[in-house]
Amino acid sequence: MQEWLKLSLLLSIFGFLKEIRPSEPFIYEFLVDDSWRNVTDDEVTQIVYPAGTFSYLVQLVVVFLITDLCRYKPLIILLGIAGCVVWSLLLWTKSLVGLIIVEIFYGTFCASEVAYYTYIYAKVDTEYFQLVTSHTRAAILAGSTISGVLAQLLVHFHWMDYRQLNYITFAAMIAATLWAFLLPCVDTSIYFHQEGSEKQPLLNKFQSAFALMSAHFSNSFRNTYVLKWSLWYALSTCGFIQVQTYMQPLWSVIVENHPDHKSDLYNGATQAILTVLGFLGKFRLSYFHMVFHCKTWVGLLLYKSVD
């Protein structure tokens, strides 16, 4: 097996494992169920969820700055460890304070995904970038889809309750963490660990790294093409996170107001369908990039709406 394909396979398996989280489609129902936790609906939506949002925002900036410095692999391992902490706390804590701590570590978990998505580019030649990108993205989509289907089946047939789903997620996080140790270390990186920089004084190494980072930032955002993409990606990601976070409370209210109050929830099936539709939309729109080449705001709006 070629080295680049081996690396892509190793990373993709990690990505698949970390997405096996069948507890997530029903996490809101688990959090507000007084059988397992003593918190109210309002505390979850107005205290717990915002804590996670701010935690993610702050840690994302830090992770972005240190990913290159740490050479990727340690942060991928950190991602797995943070996942283990999150789901162990969900299983064995009951207080509001415990949930806030959960959200802090969940912010670490989400922010560290930067290392997962960028690790492969430091290990393979540029000619394989498109292939390895498709592999790592496909692993995420496959894991998310299977997770949604599994959650729906287990809940629908009453094989597991909402709390027990967390055991599967916890096991997947442990497996992902152990698998992360199999990833090869990155010897060189773009900024802090360039080839031949080992003999440089530490201060000089940091100065040159930040100078190069500043130059790349300046050059990138002078390009209107990059600027448009960055703006729309930021806005669409923000919208997606908001919808993903608060759609479960909304569904819960809709079900409670439904005449048949005992109707089943289809959160898992919805997640699986959304993942598949998102994949098909991206796949279809990828053939049109030469038509509008992302120069028009309409094209960007169309792409990110489907995304």
Taken together, the total number of domains comes to 1
| Strand and helix order | HHHHHHHHHHHHH
Please describe the biggest sheet, giving its number of strands, its sense, and whether it closes into a barrel. none
What's the CATH topology name?
Growth Hormone, Chain: A
- What is the terminal-to-terminal distance? 33 Å
- Calculate Rg over CA atoms: 21 Å
Shape annotation: globular
Helix count, DSSP H or I runs of 4 or more residues: 13
> What helical percentage do the residues reach?
over 70%
Q: How many runs of DSSP E, i.e. beta strands? A: 0
Mean pLDDT: 85
How much β-strand is present in the residues? under 5%
CATH architecture: Up-down Bundle
Low-pLDDT parts are none
Pfam families: Folate_carrier (PF01770)
GO molecular function: vitamin transmembrane transporter activity
Family: Belongs to the reduced folate carrier (RFC) transporter (TC 2.A.48) family.
Keywords: Membrane, Transmembrane, Transmembrane helix
List keywords for this structure.
307 residues, mainly alpha, Growth Hormone, Chain: A, 74% helix
What's the topology here?
Blueprint: H1 3-18, H2 27-32, H3 41-70, H4 73-92, H5 96-111, H6 113-119, H7 129-156, H8 162-180, H9 202-221, H10 224-256, H11 267-285, H12 289-292, H13 297-306
What's the quick description here?
With 307 residues, this protein is mostly helical.
How would you describe the overall organization of this protein?
With 307 residues, this protein is mostly helical. The protein has one domain: Up-down Bundle (Growth Hormone, Chain: A). Helix content is 74%, strand content 0%. The chain has helices at 3-18, 27-32, 41-70, 73-92, 96-111, 113-119, 129-156, 162-180, 202-221, 224-256, 267-285, 289-292, 297-306. Helix 1 (3-18) packs parallel to helix 7 (129-156), helix 1 packs antiparallel against helix 8 and helix 4 runs antiparallel to helix 6. The longest helix has 33 residues, at 224-256. The model has no long low-confidence stretch (mean pLDDT 85). The chain crosses the membrane at residues 46-67, 74-92, 98-117, 138-159, 165-186. It comes from Acanthoscelides obtectus (Bean weevil).
